[in-house]
What does this fold into?
Amino acid sequence: MAADIRALTGVRGVAAVIIVVYHFGDVQLSTGGTASYFRIPFGYLIVDLFFMLSGFVMALTYRDAFEDLTLSKFATFMLKRVARLYPAYFVIGLFYIAKIAAGLSGENLEMYSAWDWMGNLLMMTGWGLYIFPVIGVAWAASAEMGSYLLLPILMAFTLRKSTPTCAIAVLAALLAIYAVSISGRGSSGPLDVVNGNSFYPLLRAVAGFALGLAIFRFAGVIDRLSMAMQDALVIGILIAIVAIGSFSVSDLPMYLLFIPLVAVLSRDGRIAQALFGNALVYRLGIISYSIYLIHPLFVSFAVRTWRHFGETELVYIAAAFICFAIIWGLSELSYRFVEMPGRKAIVGWFGPDRTRAAG
It folds into this structure.
């Protein structure tokens, strides 16, 4: 299997765009209530797709390294994961703090306790530790970081043990997702559980990771299908997702459809390549993490513009599209000048090669 599966990278880009549109979708009316201009049913589930994709990629990248795992190897793994997530999280977080300090977010810095600042600095807002986040959407990156800490255990049960044991692990992950859905803590839907006052967001991430690992183990069965059947499967799953989004009252069916979607996209077939592996979508996938972190900064600016110019649909759509263009441009800059240099710097400063050289 190729080290870089373009369709899986590209689908991250599509997912990032969907969640941006989802978060720009509803605006608070001056007279009370909301107006919906971009309706994405169950748009919050895109985060769960990210978790499954991350689990699959971790299996693809580290399945051999984790077979004979030592503390040193795991420390190197975690260093690389921190280097991947932390630089953009930290730098973009400074812009959120500046926005709060300027009085443009509806919050104030006095709302944050010393515990909140420490938890945000250490990227633990998604661990159920009652930490008020600076970057609201960063709970997902935090929960992903927590999932990395559990990855050796998750890999042991999903990749290296027997098929029945893996099946039990999958069942446990599905039961965990069901527990999240019935917790009553969802905001926009049963699975939209993001508040850091419970362990459910972390459980949501860990379950998605476990499913992603299991998808890697069993996705090879799709290779038995002809290319035409694989192409039809991609189209059929996407149509089913749209249909469920349009007519279903439950978010669980769409969640379950992400499992075969990741599996079939992992084979990088013709339709998968055409839809998600093309140059534009693939590039969006490359910068998707920065897109995800940056986009909430601009929702309030679109709303302020809308209110200033008369609260019409045309004004909001125009303001939103201007924000989309700015988010795209800033995400490119973040990837080139923050994510990549930051990753190299952290690995260079703290990596095992530097440690051996110092010794």
Remarks:
- Residues 136 and 296 are 8 Å apart (CA to CA).
